[in-house]
Amino acid sequence: MRNPDHRDSLDFLCISTTGWDEIWGSRQQIMLRLAKAGHRVLFVERQVGFEHLLKHSKLRKNGISQYRIKQPVEVQGNLWRWQPPLVVPGRYYSQALNRIGQSCLAAQIRTILRQLDFESPVLWLYPPHSAPLLGQFQERLSIYHCIERFSGDQRGLKKQVMTTQEISLLSKADLVFVHSNGLQQLYTDFTRHPIEVFPSAADVKHFQRKVEIHPTMAAIPEPRLVVMGTLDSRIDFSLLRNIATIRPDWHLVLIGQLKEPSQGALSFLRLPNVHNLVQQPFASLPSLLRGANVGLIPYQITEMTRYINPLKAYEYLASGIPVISTELPELSPLSKWIRIVSVNQPSHERQTERFVEEIEAAMLADSPQLRNERRQLAREYSWDARVSRMLEVIWSRI
Fold this sequence. Notes:
Elements: E1 11-15, H1 26-36, E2 40-44, H2 50-55, H3 57-62, E3 73-76, E4 79-82, H4 95-116, E5 122-125, E6 141-146, H5 156-172, E7 175-178, H6 181-187, E8 196-197, H7 204-207, H8 215-218, E9 224-228, H9 237-246, E10 251-255, H10 263-269, E11 274-276, H11 285-289, E12 294-297, H12 311-319, E13 323-326, E14 338-341, H13 348-365, H14 368-378, H15 383-397
Parallel strand pairs: 1-2, 1-5, 2-4, 5-6, 6-7, 7-8, 9-10, 9-12, 10-11, 12-13, 13-14
Antiparallel strand pairs: 3-4
C-alpha cells in the first residue's frame, strides 16, 4: 500500500523504448533517481511485436514466454518494471494498427496501475508513436522525452508514418524534453509550450569510483582504444577498420551490444587487434574504462546522428580519458575537451588519417593532471543535476 504521507511525492508511469536490463542510458538513469528521491515509478519496457522477434535474434533468444502477461517486478524500493506482452505489429506503417496496439497496451497498464495503487501518474513517454496513450491514465501531466531523431534515417512509408505520429505527440504533450539544441530547433513549431533541453549526462559518482583495471581489459595490450555503447548502423565501422589496419599495434576494444552487424562490421571484428567484449554489466564499466587510453565516438553523420548528444561522451570524460569524435554538432560546446574530427575531408582515407593523428596527439598529451581536469568538468554534467532540474520544471507545471 501507498504511504499515506505522500503529498511531496509523485507517481511516474514511464513508457520506455528499452528494457531495464539493456544498455543503461537516460531512461534508467532518470527513473532510478526519481525512485531514490521518494517518487514511485512504473517502468514499462520496450514494446515487442512478432516482426521484432523475426528481425532480432537476441529477442528470439529470450523466448516467447518473456512476452506473456506477467506481474510487475520490483527492481528496488519505489521502482517496478513491467514487460508488456507481444503488441500488434505494424505500428510504424499504419496509424490504425498503432491505435489498436496502444489501446490494448493502455488497458493492460491500467490493470498494473491499480495493483500498485498508482494515482494520477505523471506520464513520461519515450516512443514517438505514443500519442494514443495520452489521457488514458488520468495523468496529471504528460511528458514526451525525445532523445533522438527517431525517423531521421528511415525511408518511405515508415518515415512518413513515424513523422506524423511524432508530430501528433509533440503537439499534444504537456511538456517536451529533448536531448539536444538541434532537436529543440527542429520541433519548436510543433509544441504548445517551450521545449526544455536536457542534454545527456553521466553517473559521475559511478564512473569516478576508485577501481582497479578490469582483468579482461588488463589482458589486452596497450594502447587500448575503446568504443562503448550500442554498436549499430550509426557507427562508422569502415573508419574503425581503417584505423585498425593502419595501426596494427593499436587495440580497438568494443564494449556494448552489437545490433544487426553489416558485412563491413563483421570484417572489422575479424581483425586481430579488435576485441569485442560485448555488452557488459553497468557495474563493470568504470573498471573497464580504467584501462582505456582513449574513448572514441565514431558516428557516421546522418539525419539521425546530427541531433544526437551522445551519453558516452560524458561517461568517457567522467572516467578522465581523452575523447575523439566525429563532427557531431551537439559536441561542439565541448571542443576544448573533445578532439573533433571534421567530416569535411577530401576522402574517407583522409578522415581516417586525421582521426589517427588526433588519437596520437591525445595519447601523447595525456597526463594525470588532464585526466583530473576532465573528471572535474564531468561533474557539471551529472544525472543528479539533470533530474533535479527536471523535477523543478515538473513541479512548476503541476
